[in-house]
Amino acid sequence: MTAETELIEQARAWAAQDPDEQTRAELDAIVAAAERGEETDLADRFAGTLEFGTAGLRGALGAGPNRMNRVVVTRAAAGLAAYLKDTGHAGGSVVIGFDARHNSDVFARDTAEIMTGAGLKALVMPRTLPTPLLAYAIRELGCAAGVMVTASHNPPQDNGYKVYLGDGSQIVPPADSEIADRIAAVGDVADLPRGDAGKVVSEEIVDRYLDTVAGLAGDGPRHLTIVYTPLHGVGGTTVAQVLETAGFDAPFIVEQQEHPDPDFPTVSFPNPEEPGAMDLAMALAAEKRADLVVANDPDADRCAVAVPDAHGWRMLRGDEVGALLASHLIARGATGTYANSIVSSSLLGKMAAAAGQPHEETLTGFKWIGRVEDLAFGYEEALGYCCDPEHVKDKDGVSALLLVCELAAAAKAEGRGLTDLLDDIAHEHGLHATDQLSVRFDDLAQIPATMERVRATPPTTLGGLAVEKVEDLSQGSAQLPPTDGLRYTLAEGARVIVRPSGTEPKVKCYLEVVIPVGTDEDGGVDAARISAAGRLDAIKADLRGAVFGG
Question: Which residues form the Alpha-D-phosphohexomutase alpha/beta/alpha domain (predicted)?
Fold first, then answer.
């Protein structure tokens, strides 16, 4: 049997167990084309299976084991059910949430039927809702696990499957590999027992979440003109209700992006960090003379912020929003550990120390931040913030958005803005400026090859600063588990981290420089910003050559 014939037989066997008429027909058409000798992507679809890891599953929709589809999701659900039963949770409850992406509701229903078929209880969220609401529901409902069907801010052709355990945190090793082993042991999905579609959770859980989030806001000014966009996602209704309950006027909402739409027609990528994604919101803000622009990504677990400045509107970096939220919580007396990922700014550690609070650095991802003991606040530079870990041990774009609005309203009442508050922080701790350099690869094999090349020949200087220390993060340490990445400590407090993205086919470089802020006569924060921009540009130019060869 030739390799091509074997591949076609694999595809036929897969199609035979596929309960989805659409993906079955899709695969039949590809097989027919392959039999005619036409070029197809059949080999890629069967090159392996979507890897189940600490982010669960995420990939392009389509037929075959290397795509997101009902067979892959059913196998994942069966593996999770087996893991729960093997770890003492037989008969326990699993709460299942879903966003508005293509097939999210279908994947949620398949998961529920597999859970009930395995003797577990399936609780299904009442409608498309934000990911942090699912994380909240896990602990509120006393569940053994939770599943959120979402691909967050990925392109429209993708979907994903995020798994949480009963503590409300995303899975980490060894649970991920133990679940993956059970998924691999699942046989033909047509033979799996299926039960009913579970019980729909009452809207009361939504109301409790809304009240909990709104309750985070203290007393204070509420006069603020806000522009908001959910970027075609599921955050709109939730955010509007939270702001109203907390006493804010209704925000102006970007009409073209107000309602959930899995095709995300107005943006190239539904990620507020991507160039152009916030253009409509900032144009509306200019028209309404707004004080603040806030946005969520499509599943509302991230929060983006834009502010007016002398040149129009500008997006705040995730590190800037993290510093603002930390300063707000510190000022309110929030005690406990302040945590951020290794690729985020070192500023949070200095702020926590000045406030007499412990600080911890974690690997990238809220699966790690959410597990920090006695967490008071955690964030990562990719617009993820955990402001209420008592109730949501994950990033929550709704609660972060509310607290940013509260902080902006208080500043406005004093004739100031969020940029003034950032200047205050820079005066106290130095200007911490961050930037990124990333390259997307079509050939995934180039990602490990790039990492190995940089390991073999690390740079000795970057942007005119000596590389004083090189750490291979894959070796692990007393503070951090192993992860694929390199950290360069540069002179004068600068730092660079190089790592593959966990969710996209990219290698990313995270840059930070620290510039002391002089007196007003020396130019103060403005001069420090100019100096930082030049230094970041120089480091980025050298990195492009050292890491990507040009």
Answer: 51-185, 208-309, 318-425
